[in-house]
């Protein structure tokens, strides 16, 4: 583990312990009623590992209400595939909706009247944007993505395949960010200077990390909470890039310090994301206990990051994922019992 990871872990553990200490211990214990008894629920999960624990937490809580819930690990899908299948009734829900990015996927699948996001699992807690290594940025005066896209000589610094364009390590095809990155490049006329490299996100992250360790320039799309910014720390190893001309529907100022995002005000090119459950309307209407539970559950971003660090460190089996979910539920039992009580009350 690097010194940066140790520092981040120490800080995050303090935050996590503080949050747990502030939990409400006055909740009354739930009853033993099982409003979901006899009801089958089909779940999928997203194909990014940071979301696996979240899916496992929701499944475990629905099981406590008596629902017969399929194992989401058996249906790991990209968003575009999932939403189409959700509309066709193959699934009832997943825990991995990212908004507003997934709004376009839901609309294109014709599901605006069929499904809906539920609850506030993580509200505006997921930042997205573009990171560049600090050494190359400092040496070449790079503070914005515009400094790369508008300058072929600067763009060539990030060229990996020899075609003269900056290779921007981005998103899997079928993810909401895949469309947003392509649209941002086209919106700014950067097709001749920036190339969106799309592949499995974990492989792209690993490639960028390796190149950084070798002292090579990197240009990487990143979201948080994820392990990339724990391994390469903004302000020390990398910086966030601002944009002069973001997509109109993604224009927003991020509250980041100048040492992490030197171009102020900092426009990352993505709105801060809400992570929410997405479920079919007919499922929610027929299952008020489940609907209430999905509405109530919240998961701190720091807990997702701690899980992701452990996952990348080797705790990556499905038993490990279920174990992490169980540990999270145990650590937040007071809140969990309150949610379950409200869910049972909604059913009655």
Largest beta sheet: strand ordering = 5-14-6
Mean pLDDT across residues: 90
Profile the largest sheet: 3 strands, antiparallel
**How many strands appear in the DSSP assignment?**
14
Rg result: 21 Å
Structural class, by secondary structure, is alpha/beta
Straight-line distance between termini: 50 Å
- The proportion of residues forming helix, as a percent range, comes to 40-55%
- Written as H for each helix and E for each strand, in order along the chain, the element string is HEEHEEHEHEEHHHEHEHEHEEEEHHHHH
**Beta-strand content bin:** 15-25%
Query: Count of DSSP helices?
Result: 15
**Global shape:** elongated
Task: Pick out the low-confidence regions.
Answer: 2-30
Report on the architecture of this protein.
This protein is of the alpha/beta class and 348 residues long. The protein has 15 helices and 14 strands. Helix 2 (52-64) packs across helix 14. 47% of the residues are buried. Mean pLDDT is 90; it is low at 2-30.
List the helices and strands and how they pair.
Blueprint: H1 3-21, E1 40-41, E2 45-46, H2 52-64, E3 68-69, E4 76-77, H3 79-87, E5 93-99, H4 103-108, E6 115-126, E7 128-133, H5 134-140, H6 146-149, H7 152-155, E8 166-169, H8 176-187, E9 194-197, H9 201-213, E10 219-223, H10 228-231, E11 238-241, E12 253-254, E13 266-267, E14 273-280, H11 281-286, H12 288-296, H13 301-312, H14 318-331, H15 333-347
Parallel strand pairs: 1-3, 2-4, 8-9
Antiparallel strand pairs: 5-14, 6-14, 7-10, 7-11, 12-13
Helix pairs in contact: 2-14, 12-15
